């Protein structure tokens, strides 16, 4: 077990970024470390599941570019639900270009991501410019950014020195980088939140290289602060009761790390 075995309240006090503080206080208030990855293609389906599962999650993660009927009204509704149920919006855009281009992609086009997403993530592969590009707009809006330091997919290249370099990049931008998408505990610095995708109640994989671990494995062995769950919930017969199961499994695992 890793060294950061602090309660959400303590973590909230020992991190700097206002968004991290907000996230930890949501996690504490709602007793949840569950992020819902709402990978659906119709805005009404997304809004419906988010409204019912919202009480059990601290984050809703989107892939806005798969929404067929995207509109400003969809984003307004999603933001209303974030307020209603007290969760944070994370657009899983994985920016990966030069700073100027990612800044344009963050602000413009149909999605105008910077106007509604509290958190986005970036691949460190282009170098620090990718962070600077997002930060140029995001910092003054109070947004935060996660670095994809490791991936859950089979054969991915985000390992070893690449992952170490990602941690260094994050340390150079503590005012804006609030953590990592990762598969292991990368640092004990309380400023960095570790979020882990590839989580399902039973481990295994899918047909396209996704590799799953259980909530317990992710939190206790891999050191995840937040578990990210997509199909495990959205493809369940009863997404609400399944979300509760993930919430409980994730939260109980967290409680075990405090012992
Ligand atoms: P799943 O249905 O629980 O497998 O969905 C996982 C989500 O997390 C999906 O939106 C992916 O794009 C996202 N993801 C991931 O699975 N693995 C990674 O390493 C990263 C993101 Br980064």
UniProtKB/TrEMBL annotation:
<comment type="similarity">
    <text>In the N-terminal section; belongs to the purine/pyrimidine phosphoribosyltransferase family.</text>
</comment>
<keyword id="KW-0328">Glycosyltransferase</keyword>
<feature type="domain" description="Orotidine 5'-phosphate decarboxylase">
    <location>
        <begin position="33"/>
        <end position="246"/>
    </location>
</feature>
<keyword id="KW-0665">Pyrimidine biosynthesis</keyword>
<keyword id="KW-0511">Multifunctional enzyme</keyword>
<comment type="similarity">
    <text>In the C-terminal section; belongs to the OMP decarboxylase family.</text>
</comment>
<keyword id="KW-0210">Decarboxylase</keyword>
<keyword id="KW-0456">Lyase</keyword>
<protein>
    <recommendedName>
        <fullName>Uridine 5'-monophosphate synthase</fullName>
        <ecNumber>2.4.2.10</ecNumber>
        <ecNumber>4.1.1.23</ecNumber>
    </recommendedName>
</protein>
<keyword id="KW-0808">Transferase</keyword>
<comment type="pathway">
    <text>Pyrimidine metabolism; UMP biosynthesis via de novo pathway; UMP from orotate: step 1/2.</text>
</comment>
<comment type="pathway">
    <text>Pyrimidine metabolism; UMP biosynthesis via de novo pathway; UMP from orotate: step 2/2.</text>
</comment>
């Amino acid at each position: 077990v890793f060294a950061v075995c602090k309660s959400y309240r303590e973590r909230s006090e020992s991190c700097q970024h206002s968004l991290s503080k907000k996230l930890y206080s949501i996690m504490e208030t709602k007793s949840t470390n569950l992020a819902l990855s709402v990978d659906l293609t119709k805005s009404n389906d997304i809004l419906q599941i988010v409204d019912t599962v919202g009480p059990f999650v601290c984050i809703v993660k989107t892939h806005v570019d798969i929404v067929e009927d995207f509109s400003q009204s969809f984003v307004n509704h999603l933001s209303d639900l974030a307020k209603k149920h007290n969760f944070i919006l994370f657009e899983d855009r994985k920016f990966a270009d030069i700073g100027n281009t990612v800044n344009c992609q963050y602000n413009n086009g149909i999605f105008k991501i910077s106007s509604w997403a509290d958190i986005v993530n970036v691949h460190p592969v282009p170098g620090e410019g990718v962070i600077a590009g997002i930060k140029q707009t995001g910092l003054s809006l109070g947004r935060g950014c996660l670095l994809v330091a490791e991936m859950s997919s089979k054969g991915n290249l985000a390992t070893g020195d690449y992952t170490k370099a990602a941690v260094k990049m994050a340390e150079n931008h503590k005012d804006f980088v609030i953590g990592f998408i990762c598969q292991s505990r990368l640092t004990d610095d309380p400023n960095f939140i570790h979020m882990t995708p590839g989580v399902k109640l039973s481990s295994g994989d899918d047909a396209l290289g996704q590799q799953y671990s259980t909530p317990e494995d992710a939190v206790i062995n891999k050191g995840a602060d937040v578990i990210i769950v997509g199909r495990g919930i959205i493809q369940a017969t009863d997404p609400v009761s399944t979300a509760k199961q993930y919430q409980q499994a994730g939260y109980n695992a967290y409680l075990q790390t405090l012992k």
